[in-house]
Amino acid sequence: MIEELKLIRPGEIRVRIAPSPTGPFHIGLARTALFNYLFAQKYQGSFILRIEDTNIKRSKKRWENEILEGLKWLGIEWQEGPDCGGSYGPYRQSERKEIYKKYIEKLLKEGEIYYCFCTPEELEAHRQYLMSISQPVRYSGKCRELSDQEVKRNLAGGKSYVLRFKTLLKKVSFKDMLRGKIDCQSEIFGDIVVAKDISTPLYNLACVIDDYEMKITHIIRGEDHISNTPKQILLAEALKIKTPKYLHLPLILDQDRAKLSKRDRIKSVLEYKKDGFFPETMINFLAFLGWNPGTQKEIFSLNTLVQEFSLDKIQKSGAEFNPQKLDWLNGFYIRSKSIEKLTEFCLPYLIEKQLIIPQFKTEQYPPAYGAEIIIQKFKIKETGEEISLNYLQKVIALYQERLKKLSEIPELIDFFFQKELDYSKELLRGMSDARQPEIVEKEIKNNLDKAKKTLQKIKPGNWKKENLEKSLLKLAEEVGKGDRGKVLWPLRVALTGREASAGPFEIAELLGKEKTLERIKKAIKKL
């Protein structure tokens, strides 16, 4: 067990996530948020949300809103943040300029940082030179020893500048709670830029100040931040403040073992929501991106994770993002829903694709899905036929075992709501029969005609799956002489217009006698 964990007292943990609102709420951030949240919950600590929006050009309110919405959807709750306040706010960096100014002025006064007036062209020329001699890219130190008079003259002349940290050339060591001791030579990065001006710090300095001011005890973040940690430790030393404990999570990798890019390789968390993944699916999936309970158990609720989560069960090696595992998990949660609840979740997708139109009572309009008012009646868009919520439940129940995400439901069941099915006679014929097409088509036509006559004999009151199955299987055995597919394959295609579907008996029952016979007649005409 990680030794530091033995010393933790309930209530003393303070952790945070500090996203930049410069893009969608991605999987990596969601995983980091979850691990911080679970750690805080386990020890009755505090989980803080801080928005790092000092990049004015790229930071957008819409991305901040997406982060908040995504976390709330996942059920990850914070105790302090931009929307709820707290004792150590403000929780947006853009609102903390006066706090930063105090620290930057202190560093300037003590000679820990200095004005750098180098132009972008000068910096680029030096960068190219270092690369040409295979040296690490770092600042030349040109402005490090400028006199006070030179600085004042440049500032008075309106010359643009940044503020750089006077990095001591030394070995920086720190203990990572997961990885043990990590060493870094500061000469690799040199005099880094730490602020744009007297009140606008860049990431590393702002992070150090905020974590100190907000009394953060542990920083749990991605492995890609390991290179920032030595810089932040040196800045903390210059400010004479204590640093938190560090733990760097493994990278999330794609199935080719390449780093998962938040922009190019993966959808945002809210896109998964839109696609019809459940929040409990995402939580369960995210937990296994770098953590393992040490058992065969694969299904965890958020509450169960709080009980079983431990930092010492986090792995060091990269965590593979497996889309098939995500689909499997969502399928599990789909199957665990009652058919009433699953139908409620599926309705917006069917309405969006305009397969069905909800029929509102005046006092119910507009309803909210998941609210107390549940729509009971619908119309099929193509035919105008009225159908009930109960009918939709029966249709969706046929596909509950097959469904991997809610957005698939319109494509799986659209044939129930179409006036005309679009499919070829080649599909009716099937592709495995080596005989001449004309011979096969004649046989299928005869078999469909026999199926139609068999079904015509069944009275509407007896139009039940059991009776349909009994009659059609008997016919299939007689006609197919052991090959039921000679009847059931074209029947399935006639009813659905596709190769794969739920069973033809269940489909025929829900279509009803009239529609079933009509679709068989149309299939016969195709041949």
Major sheet description = 4 strands, antiparallel
Content of β-strand: 5-15%
Within the largest sheet, what's the order of strands? Answer: 3-4-7-8
Shape, please? elongated
CATH architecture of the domain at 1-87 and 250-336, please?
A: 3-Layer(aba) Sandwich
Q: Supply the number of helical segments.
A: 20
CATH 4th-level superfamily of the domain at 1-87 and 250-336: HUPs
Which radius of gyration do the C-alpha atoms yield?
A: 32 Å
CATH third-level topology of the domain at 1-87 and 250-336:
Rossmann fold
Low-confidence stretches: 362-373
Q: Give the helix proportion (percent range).
A: 40-55%
Class derived from helix and strand content: alpha/beta
Distance between the termini: 71 Å
Could you tell me the mean pLDDT?
A: 92
DSSP, total strands: 15
CATH top level of the domain at 1-87 and 250-336 is Alpha Beta
Brief digest:
With 527 residues, the protein is α/β, with parallel strands linked by helices. The protein has helices at 3-6, 27-42, 61-74, 97-109, 120-132, 148-156, 203-213, 228-239, 269-275, 279-287, 302-308, 323-336, 339-352, 389-397, 409-413, 425-429, 437-456, 465-480, 485-496, 504-526, and strands at 14-17, 46-49, 113-116, 162-165, 171-176, 180-185, 193-197, 200-201, 218-222, 245-249, 252-253, 319-320, 356-358, 377-380, 386-388. The N and C termini lie far apart (71 Å).
